[in-house]
Amino acid sequence: MTHKRVYSRRATLSLKMSEFEVPPMQDLLVIGRKAPIGPEAVRRMAEALSPEQFTIIRLEHPKVEAVLLRTSLLQMLDKEILINIILEEAERMISDTMVIRSEINIEISVQREVELS
Questions:
Q1: What is the β-pairing status of strands 5-19 and 64-70?
Q2: What Å distances lie between residue 115 and 8, 9, 22, 103, 109, CA to CA?
């Protein structure tokens, strides 16, 4: 007796972006290359406000120096996929002097099909 299984995993992302304000912490910050606050200062600020909750990811990008990302998001979705989506959306609105904050919601939907006996 063979069991037929169909397995599907999908992720739906929803991003809300706005210019950096106080209070600064949401889910992520996109830091421009010439922004008034650099990645190290952002990392220290995040660590002071929310210890061990955020990861700084430095990038080779013409406008973006780094992304500060809530660490739990990296447990839900592959880092490369997440960073590529963030950059694709942010580079449409960011200049190299800006810091953009963003809220991100990731919904994982799983469908499985099993054969009933």
A1: unpaired
A2: 15, 19, 53, 40, 20
Residue 22 has pLDDT above 80, yes or no: no
Beta bridge partners of 112: 7
Output the DSSP codes for 66-85. EEEEEHHHHHHS-HHHHHHH
The 10 Å CB-count burial string (b at 16+, else e) for 60-96 is ebebbbbbbbbeebeeebeeeebbeebbebbeeebee
Cα–Cα distance, 103 to 111 (Å, whole number): 26
Res. 25 pLDDT band, cuts 50 70 90:
low
pLDDT score for 18: 73
How many whole angstroms separate alpha carbon 91 and alpha carbon 88? 6
Q: Is the predicted pLDDT of residue 21 greater than 70, yes or no? A: no
Residue type, 51: P
Global pTM value: 0.76
**CA dist., res. 99 & res. 117, Å (int):** 57
